[in-house]
Specification:
It is built from 13 helices and twelve strands. By secondary structure, it is α/β, with parallel strands linked by helices.
Length: 304
């Protein structure tokens, strides 16, 4: 039988290489940073290969280390899967979910209980962050994005959405498209690094209406969720994505003062790196999340 390197040492190497530091690996493994360093040195001696270049206080992977990392990560994930299958609830699966900030602040957090109730307990890390996402450094299992940003990983389009003028019932009255400019308008701007969000000027243009100076006035928010909250508070009319505003329309906190909508330029996409695709908890969450997204964008409350 071929002699194998220390399993604990390989685990220390994988954690240090994935997290980018011995300190982070030590915290993950509940040992000291010195112990992590010693375990990795033992593996290096057993394999006859340097896995890290040690430069002052930094560690950088060697070519051998770069080659080993993804294979070890997959191996430890498989070991964990076997342990969970055999041990049941004693080994809860870990799931790292990355979504845009607006989706983490309310939309997904309000729905996660449904996933846990139907699929069992899991150690879930919910990350609200803008693109680009460091998949491997943060060990992200699944990413929901607006637009196909990650061609280096398997990515699929899951839903097409639109924006809808929405406001609190108290503001709606007998509004018509040509009188909408007379109400306070809430603007959404995703910033210089984000995708272009449909503007009120775009919306009035498709309706063939010249809004005048009103199109530049009113409140402005840098996130879709904030703009939606401002509308719910009765501070104006917002252009809101269907995926976010459907539930508020269904329960009457928002209404659509006019029927015209404006389709978004890009679809919502799911990205799952290959190292995560075969995990049961990832497959289950993918199926559940797609169903939730499609249900929201096809809500009857978004009909004309």
């Amino acid at each position: 039988m071929v002699a194998l390197p220390s399993l604990r040492g390989l685990q220390a190497f994988e954690a240090a290489a994935r997290s980018g530091s011995f300190a982070a690996a030590a915290e993950e493994l509940s040992i000291s940073a010195a112990a992590v360093s010693q375990l990795i040195r033992t593996v290096e001696e057993q394999m006859g290969r340097r896995l890290f270049h040690r430069v002052n206080r930094r560690v950088v992977l060697t070519e051998a280390g770069v080659e080993m990392l993804p294979r070890l990560t997959m191996a430890f994930q498989e070991i964990g899967s076997v342990a969970r299958d055999v041990g049941g609830d004693a080994f809860r699966p870990r799931l790292v979910i990355s979504v845009p900030p607006s989706m983490a602040m309310g939309w997904l957090s309000e729905r996660l209980a449904g996933f846990v109730a139907s699929h069992g307990a899991a150690d879930i890390s919910l990350r609200g962050e803008d693109d680009p996402v460091p998949f491997d450094h943060e060990m992200v299992d699944i990413r929901l994005s607006y637009g196909p940003h990650y061609r280096e990983h398997p990515t699929e389009e899951i839903a097409r959405d639109a924006v809808y003028p929405v406001c609190a019932p108290s503001l709606a009255g007998a509004v018509k498209p040509e009188t909408l400019a007379g109400l306070p308008l809430i603007h959404t701007d995703w910033g210089p690094t984000g995708a272009a969000f449909p503007s009120w000027r775009n919306w009035f243009g498709t309706a063939g209406i010249e809004p005048g100076r009103a199109v530049k006035l009113g409140l402005s928010a840098n996130s879709s969720r904030t703009a939606l909250d401002l509308a719910i508070s009765g501070l104006g009319v917002a252009l809101a994505q269907g995926i976010y505003c459907a539930r508020a329309l269904e329960n009457g906190r928002l209404v659509r003062p006019v029927a015209r909508s404006l389709e978004l330029r890009q679809p919502y996409c799911l990205t799952i790196p290959e190292r995560s695709a075969r995990r049961d908890v990832v497959a289950a969450f993918r199926e559940w999340l797609i169903e939730e997204c499609v249900r929201a964008v096809r809500s009857p409350a978004l009909g004309a």
